[in-house]
Amino acid sequence: MIGYATIGVGDLERAKAFYDAVLTPLGGRRTLTYERSQYYGSGDRGAMLGVVLPFDGQAATSGNGAMVALSAGSPSAVDQVHAAALAAGGSCEGPPGQRMDNFYGAYFRDLDGNKLCVFYTGR
């Protein structure tokens, strides 16, 4: 049902390098590229994540309570994404671990302070 979500960034090239590293373990790759944005997807025309320079020209800010959640295919993929985020300069908001009976997840912030979760539900 979700077509895409966007995250505001202050430096598009820096954000591209970060998300290239972070989304690779999920099979994510660059899909649509524009002057002010880069979108990532899996190539199956599913939902995309976009990193964008804000349209209004103002500074990008992270939303309080706003978070993007990325679905992973296994707990080890959750671990890999979280490790890639930290290695690429992100910060930990909650290490990988079992949160509920059917939810293994980890939380991190990107280089602009946007909060993301990567999770596996054990479908």
- In angstroms, what is the radius of gyration? 14 Å
Low-confidence stretches: none
* Helix content percent band: 10-25%
Distance between the termini: 18 Å
Structural class, please?
Answer: alpha/beta
Shape: globular
The major β-sheet equals: 4 strands, mixed
Q: Work out the count of structural domains.
A: 1
Q: How many β strands by DSSP?
A: 8
Mean pLDDT: 93
Q: Report the top-level CATH class.
A: Alpha Beta
- The third-level CATH topology is 2,3-Dihydroxybiphenyl 1,2-Dioxygenase, domain 1
Question: What is the spatial order of strands in the main beta sheet?
Answer: 1-4-3-2
Secondary-structure element string: EHEEEEHEEE
Oligomer: single chain
> Which CATH architecture is right?
Roll
The CATH superfamily bears the name: 2,3-Dihydroxybiphenyl 1,2-Dioxygenase, domain 1
Count the helices. How many?
A: 2
Strand percentage:
35-45%
